[in-house]
Amino acid sequence: MKQKELVDLMTTLDDAWNAGPGSALWETFRKRHTENVAVYWPGGAPPTRGRHNHDVEAIEFFKTFPDNHLINRPYKLLFADGNHTCSVAEFSGTMKGPMKTAEGKVIPPTGKSFHVEFCTVATWNEKGEITEERLFYDLVGLMRQIGLA
To answer: Facing residues of 114 across strands?
Structure first.
């Protein structure tokens, strides 16, 4: 794919993220990931594997931070190289819903907000789908801002 096409795919993927689950654009978010995508999150946990599992975790994130927003128009930085894109954006939200931990513990909402830089490095296939997505942000800073660290 051409670099411009990849940049456009990344931008419209984040437009779909900002629209959120249940919106007309959410299917774009889902379809931009392959059925067997690997999504790597901060904190060193094993990657999320598969479109369905990534969709489920994204919906859970919106339940915890329903007003979350990624500023992608314009990004702080966005470029494509080969079959990769790299984006850096401001990311914010408020913990208005409970947070489920990996161990199954439920943390009640704090009502506190976060604001961090967010970086996505994505590997794309020839169909315009992400095969691997690496997400980077200050997880400790985010947790401190929402009162959990």
So the answer is: 93
Q: How far is Cα 84 from Cα 1, in angstroms, rounded to an integer?
A: 10
pTM of the predicted model, to two decimals? 0.95
Euclidean distance between CA atoms 18 and 54, whole angstroms:
16
Return per-residue pLDDT of the chain as tens, 149 residues.
899 999 999 999 999 999 999 999 999 999 999 999 999 999 878 999 999 999 999 999 999 999 999 999 999 999 999 999 999 999 999 999 999 988 889 999 999 999 999 999 999 999 999 999 999 999 999 999 999 98
Nearest to 61 by CA among 149, 119, 142: 142
Helices and strands in the chain: count of H runs, count of E runs: 4, 9
**Domain positions in the chain:** 3-145
> Which residue type, as a one-letter code, is found at position 2?
K
Which of 8, 55, 53, 69 shows the shortest CA–CA distance to 27?
A: 55
Class of domain 3-145: alpha beta
